[in-house]
Structure formats: structure tokens, C-alpha cells
Amino acid sequence: MFDRYEAGEQAILVHINFTQDEEWEDLSEFEMLVSSAGVNALHVVTGSRKTPLPKYYVGEGKAQEIADAVRTVDADIIIFNHALSPAQERNLEQLCQCRVIDRTGLILDIFAQRARTHEGKLQVELAQLRHISTRLIRGWTHLERQKGGIGLRGPGETQLETDRRLLRERIKTILRRLDKVAKQRDQGRRARNRAEIPTVSLVGYTNAGKSTLFNRITDAGVYAADQLFATLDPTLRKIEVADVGAAILADTVGFIRHLPHDLVAAFKATLKETQEADLLLHVVDASDDRFRENIEAVETVLDEIDAGDVPVLLVMNKIDNLDNAQPRIERDEEGLPQRVWVSAMEGQGIDLLFQALTERLAGTMIKHSLRLPPEMIGRLRSKFYQMGCIVQEEYESDGCLMIDIRLPMAEWSRLQKRESTSLDDYIVA
């Protein structure tokens, strides 16, 4: 049912520049996507237009040029670097007598190849089913016929309607399974919140070096390669940050321009690690000429998944590919780290990255010295011990307890709300 590539499949690539579109796709990135899918590009058809045409997306002449190229090089498939409508795909297939895949289908197939965990496979299948549900009629001549014959009379359901119904049922099954996965992740997240362990999530454009950096920091041995979407399944590891303690570092899937919406929706459970992180490490390939556009593309996806308000620390990676670039920390007017220049491959600037992590995460921690009267000691002292925030304590001659605590600001605020009396009245320093 799915358009699944086979090793060594021969393809014609189509890339059109639209003069009225400022968010044009990058041809070199498209070729990397095709290579990541394991497809051999025989020929690239390029062109320019003001706007797409409804029938073939390209003009009649360009469509015929693509059809001629297919016959000349004996290609198996045509891959567009653009999102095509189902009708445009069908029209092109009829003209070229060859399968046609758009950019969304290509990315979905790469994700299908990369998925390793049960959750990842379910998420990719969900995205593929949603994508293919609008393209069921393609290439099928029997779909419009009514069912007939012994044992099949009665429903009056066409084959197309049957396929759509089966798709809907499969989608519902996957959603139920993913809901269980989401609940399991929520349980783990709540346990970390109770233990006051901050979460740091790696985000960034695909192939920016997130997994290499993740391995450098954690020695996790996560698969890392110079290809798009090398990492698909999320990985969590515990790290130690000075003056903060234990923290959870999450490696996530890379983003890309015009990431298919079906894919974003399918990966909601995975991307929840990003939504609820205390800090995002936005890894950027500083050696990429389009790194500013890549940053904007990632920020767009973060807004789509409701993670646009999470604090961000930019990690300018791959400085080993730049001339005279040195590891350093860039700060804002208040002295807070905003950018760290590192090379994950060479290990340059990792100490500076941990320094910046300490400053950014410790900023959410508060220290208080409290003087608790005897009637408050029992209840509050036990709560402080449960939270693991006591630095030191000492009883005074009048029975009061001097206690120093250190805890996240959010936990202090929650504790304040739960208490009937204001804890600020007991603060002495």
C-alpha cells in the first residue's frame, strides 16, 4: 500500500524555483534527502515559474520534458521537491507512466526506514496512513465498482469505500496504542518532576550534529551519521551539571523546512519532551550558509508544537569547519548565556557548554534561610526532606529551627500556594 523504495531505485528529481515564493526549497538539501532514502538520482529537472499550475504543478512543456527524461534514462520513480496534490500526482503518473512521489512522501519514507522502536514505527505508520488516505484511488481501476457475487451482496460498498473504512479503523487502533505510550511517558515525566530533575532537550535542524553532541556529553553511543534524519527515536540520558545536580538530556528528531503536518501530529507524544523541557539546546550547524534560515525553520516547528515559550540556549556547532572560529560564550545585556560556540566532533567548547548550562539552569533555583517556630517545624521540615532541598539546619535555644533550603523556583511557588500561611514571613535571608 505504501510507496516504499528499494535499494538502488532509479529516480528523476524535479526542483522548481518560484519567483514569488520567498521560502524556496534548497536543491542540495533535496539531493541529500534523496540520498538518505537510498535512491539513485539519474537526472535532475529544474525550472522557474511564478506560481504552480493546478494540473501538473509544472507547465505542460515541463511535464512533457519530465516524461521524456523518464523514458530516456528508464527511471523507476519521479520525486518532486514540493508538496503535490493527489490530483497532480495522478495526472503526472498518467502522463509519465511512472510513480510520482512528492517531498512529503519522501520524508515519510525516510522516517519509515529510520524507525527502530515500537513507538517510532507506530508514529510513522500513522503519518503514512493519513497521507495515503487522500491518494487511495491512484493506480486502482477497480475501486469504483460495487462489490458483488455470492456473499458480497448487500452493503453496496465500493472497494474504495472499503479501503477508506479499513484505513480509519487502523488509524483508530494506532491512536489507542500511542495514547498508552503517551501515558507511560507522562508517568516518567511526573516522576522526574517529583524528583526535581530538570530536563534539557536537544532540538535543531536535521544533520546539525545533535546526536554527535549527545554522544559527546553522555557517552550514549547513539547512532550519528552525516545524513538527514539519522536520529528518529528519542533517547534520554542523565547528566550531572555543576551547582544543579542531575539533569535529563533528551535527543530528539531533527526538524526540516515544511515538515509534513501529519508527521508533526503523529510525533506529538515524542515531542512532548520538547514541550515540557526546562531548557532547549538549539543545535545549529554554524558552517551551513543557510543557518539563519534553518534557525527560523526550527522556531516555526517549535511554535507549531507549542514549545515556542521554552527558554532556549543556541549551540553553534561545527566550528571546526570554520576558519579561525574559537569556542566561546555569547551573553545578553544581563550577562545570561545566549550562544555557545562548540565542535561536538572535536570536543571543543564542551566545558563552556556545561558552564552555560549551569548558569541557565541554576537561574531557576532559589536559596532561602528560614527561621521556623516550633509549631511549624514538624510539617514543613518533613516536606523539605521529601523535596530533598535542605542544605543545612540548626536548632536555636528558644526551640526555633534555622534551616537553609535550595530548590527550583516553581516548586517554591507551588509550596507557597499549598500552605495556609505565607512562607515569606519566615525568611531571614
From TrEMBL:
Its cofactor is Mg(2+). Mg(2+) binds at residues 211, 231. One of its GO terms (molecular function) is guanosine tetraphosphate binding. GO terms for cellular component: cytoplasm. It is found in: Cytoplasm. Keywords: Cytoplasm, GTP-binding, Magnesium, Metal-binding, Nucleotide-binding. InterPro entries: EFG_III/V, G_HFLX_dom, GTP-bd, GTP-bd_M, GTPase_HflX, GTPase_HflX_N, GTPase_HflX_N_sf, HflX_C. The keyword Metal-binding applies. GTPase that associates with the 50S ribosomal subunit and may have a role during protein synthesis or ribosome biogenesis. This is GTPase HflX.
